[in-house]
Design goal:
- This protein is an alpha/beta fold.
- Helix 3 crosses helix 5.
- The chain contains ten helices and eleven strands.
- Strands 4-5-7-6-8-9-10-11 form an eight-stranded mixed β-sheet, sandwiched between helices. A three-stranded antiparallel β-sheet has the order 1-2-3, covered by helices on one side.
Length: about 325
């Protein structure tokens, strides 16, 4: 029989998140350097990239991608890709993230910006949202710099910026859309033209039908969803926190808010699909310019898990069309 003293001396694991985040009974946290997606990086040289520090105080970096050669002399749109991971895991350096950014840069013929953000539970929300905003403020600094970085400034069109996020990154994109409002005047001369939410990570204290009844073996199952929220929401708050539930009891009223165009994407087998669809329906009823596309039978994150699948290729064409339609 173990004693309390022995337990204190030998802490045991109480949380394991995708094998990369381990939390112990004494409160200690161990993060593995190995990503949860162990796939090879497909770098064929058609896209070049580099890292930049965008928040020195928190030592946060972003990764910039651009086509090695551009088919046009015109400047390229800028497309943010904010990674997912339930606010608890993930990085711009993970191979699945890097591979998708290669595809985005080459297929969209755009400059891709993939920022990191502070992760929970060490640093809970709203830190990740603030970091997303800082990554856009960094772009504003580049746009007005007296010593511009030719690598970026010679090819990037700061007046055609699109903010996209995957899962938790989609949540960050939503919160940036609300913060910046239509026209994004706060970050001028950067002009955000639209937002793409890829399987946005929203929540609420009342479960949606699909959260409650959807497949238990889903890639993002309810146990994992609940764990991500428990570890990332501010201590003492619930899943109706304004950063989590866009329609919670204390969330800002989106009906009266002017927003830039939004495209919402979700897989038909994703437990988050009801919330994504509800979000799009409500905003459409309120007269916002919003599109919603559900890919039948697809799991959460299908586009990065299998970027060469037919649905993933179709999604890329939808994003390209969205950029074209909202570039002027």
């Amino acid at each position: 029989m173990s004693t309390n003293n022995e337990t204190a001396i030998n802490p045991y694991e109480v949380e394991d998140v995708r094998g990369v985040l381990h939390i112990y009974s004494d409160g200690s946290i161990v993060r593995s350097a190995k990503p949860s997606f162990s796939v090879p990086v497909h770098d064929d040289g058609s896209v070049i990239f580099k890292d930049a520090l965008f928040d020195a105080a928190n030592n946060l970096q972003l990764r910039l991608y651009k086509p090695a050669t551009s088919s046009s002399s015109a400047k390229l749109p800028i497309f943010y890709y904010i990674h997912g991971g339930g606010f608890c895991i993930g990085s711009r350096t993970w191979p699945n993230c890097q591979n998708y950014c290669f595809k985005l840069a080459s297929q969209l013929q755009a400059v891709i910006i993939s920022p990191d953000y502070r992760l929970a539970p060490e640093i809970r929300l709203p830190a990740a949202i603030e970091d997303g905003f800082m990554a856009v403020k960094w772009l504003q600094e580049q746009a007005v710099s007296k010593e511009p970085d030719a690598w970026l400034n010679d090819v990037a069109d700061f007046s055609r910026v699109f903010i996209s996020g995957d899962s938790a990154g989609g949540n960050i994109a939503h919160n940036l859309a609300v913060r910046l409002g239509a026209g994004s005047a706060e970050v001028a001369p950067v002009r955000v033209r639209g937002y793409v939410y890829l399987a946005p990570f929203f929540g609420g204290t009342v479960l949606s039908k699909f959260e409650a009844e959807g497949p238990k073996d889903a890639f993002l199952n309810w146990e994992l969803i609940e764990r991500f929220w428990r570890l990332s929401i501010p201590v003492g708050e619930t899943r109706d926190h304004p950063l989590v539930n866009p329609f919670g009891p204390v969330s800002p009223n989106l009906e009266d808010m002017a927003l830039d165009p939004i495209l919402v994407i979700v897989g038909g087998s994703d437990l988050l699909k009801d919330r994504a669809e509800d979000y799009a329906k409500k905003l459409k009823q309120w007269g916002k310019k919003i599109g919603y596309v559900e890919f039948e039978g697809q799991q959460h994150g299908f586009f990065t898990i299998n970027p060469d699948s037919a649905p993933s290729k179709e999604l890329m064409l939808l994003i390209k069309k969205f950029i074209t339609e909202n570039s002027s």
